Task: inverse folding
């Protein structure tokens, strides 16, 4: 059985979408003749935890751990709350405080490519010995954090290995880069490091066609699109009696669906029955601008803020909800972002209301699989029309979807594709 080293930062008990990709890959890799060895930090600073995911780690999986030094502990001396918020990706769009601005500048200019950069050199040293000892010839690095690709790059320079760089998200083109207050020097360094990784890797894996096209202009290395996926069995659940509209995951301020809130606010005034059954469920961190918009359209009495919930409860919530929200920042730079939860949404069999930028790849996938409706965030009239159609079906007890061509997104099928590329 071929042995492959996987370098990743997010690993149980980390919560959130970043941990799911490789937790699922390592589950299925042995079925295709690949034995994974996972390298993770021994003492990471995870913004959210999900202890239940520890039970999903294969019992026979070999896991290597080494200490990591992260600066978030130092930054928390300035503001523990703001540090946790920024590390989670919730960056306030308007009027950031002095402390927030300072933390963003420090994060963007002192820690390039990211705050895990201090793990690179000791990891290269440790893993060099391990590769030589075990005779491993294939290494996969997964980012973000993109500093982990620098570990792969360092190992590639020292050893005769095949190095595959897996990009769960883009690097310099990702939306939050514009918020980090990068100096010209820091911006150039990001571009230089990104180029070195893209040209130094033997193969590259990305999660969207848009990212593949973007990277194709920067490297001649083979690039494979392997999306995220689902690994759940669609167990029947009784649907919520209310007309529940649920969003799962961090609701960043930039994703604030003002057009949706406007449409819902109007429906509450125009339709008494609708007002008697509406319930908006938000699972995860919610940005301040979102809360302000909910208050502006008088939606607060209809909102249930659930906070972070474990993944097993997420799956249950998806299957019980009447409608599932899929939101993305309305910007050309986010057209290639495909949220990992999309695939679980599809499998849940509940209508997906996808609101994002024009040309959004995830929105197109919702249409291709017949799992919901895709509109631009500002199209309040279009959103309103869709909701009215779905509400009429809900009243008759017939709201649902008939998905098509979902099997290719099962984690096992995606793992088989990965093995062929390896």
Result:
């Amino acid at each position: 059985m071929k042995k492959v080293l996987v370098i990743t930062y997010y690993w149980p008990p980390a919560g959130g979408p970043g941990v799911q990709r490789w937790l699922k890959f390592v589950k299925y890799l042995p079925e295709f003749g690949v034995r994974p060895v996972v390298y993770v930090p021994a003492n990471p600073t995870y913004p959210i935890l999900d202890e239940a995911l520890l039970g999903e780690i294969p019992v026979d999986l070999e896991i290597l751990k080494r200490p990591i030094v992260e600066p978030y502990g130092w930054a928390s001396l300035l503001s523990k709350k703001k540090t946790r918020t920024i590390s989670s990706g919730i960056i306030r769009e308007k009027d950031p405080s002095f402390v927030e601005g300072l933390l963003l500048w420090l994060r963007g200019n002192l820690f390039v490519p990211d705050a895990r950069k201090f793990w690179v050199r000791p990891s290269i040293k440790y893993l060099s010995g391990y590769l030589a000892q075990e005779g491993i010839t294939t290494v996969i690095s997964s980012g973000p954090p993109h500093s982990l690709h620098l570990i792969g790059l360092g190992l590639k320079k020292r050893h005769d290995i095949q190095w595959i760089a897996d990009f769960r998200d883009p690097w310099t083109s990702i939306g939050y880069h514009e918020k980090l207050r990068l100096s010209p020097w820091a911006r150039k360094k990001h571009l230089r490091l990104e180029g070195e990784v893209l040209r130094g890797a033997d193969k590259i894996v990305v999660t969207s066609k848009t990212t593949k096209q973007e990277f194709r202009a920067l490297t001649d290395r083979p690039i494979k699109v392997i999306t995220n996926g689902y690994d759940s069995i669609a167990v029947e659940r009784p649907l919520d009696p209310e007309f529940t509209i649920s969003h799962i995951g961090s609701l960043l301020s930039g994703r604030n669906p003002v057009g949706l809130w406007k449409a819902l606010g109007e429906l509450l005034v125009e339709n008494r029955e609708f007002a008697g059954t509406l319930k908006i469920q938000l699972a995860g961190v919610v940005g301040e601008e979102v809360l302000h918009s909910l208050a502006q359209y008088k939606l607060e009495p209809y909102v249930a803020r659930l906070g972070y919930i474990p993944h097993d409860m997420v799956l249950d919530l998806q299957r019980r909800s009447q409608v599932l929200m899929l939101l993305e920042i309305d910007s050309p730079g986010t057209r290639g972002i495909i949220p990992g939860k999309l695939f679980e949404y599809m499998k849940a069999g509940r209508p997906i209301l996808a609101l994002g930028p024009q040309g959004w790849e995830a929105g197109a996938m919702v249409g291709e699989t017949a799992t919901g409706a895709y509109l631009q965030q500002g199209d309040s009239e279009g959103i309103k029309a869709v909701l009215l159609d779905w509400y009429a079906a809900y009243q008759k007890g017939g709201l649902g979807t008939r998905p098509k061509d979902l099997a290719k997104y099962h984690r096992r099928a995606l793992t088989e594709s990965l093995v062929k590329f390896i």
Remarks:
- The CA atoms of residues 143 and 163 lie 14 Å apart.
- The chain has two domains: 2-71+111-230+411-421, 243-395.
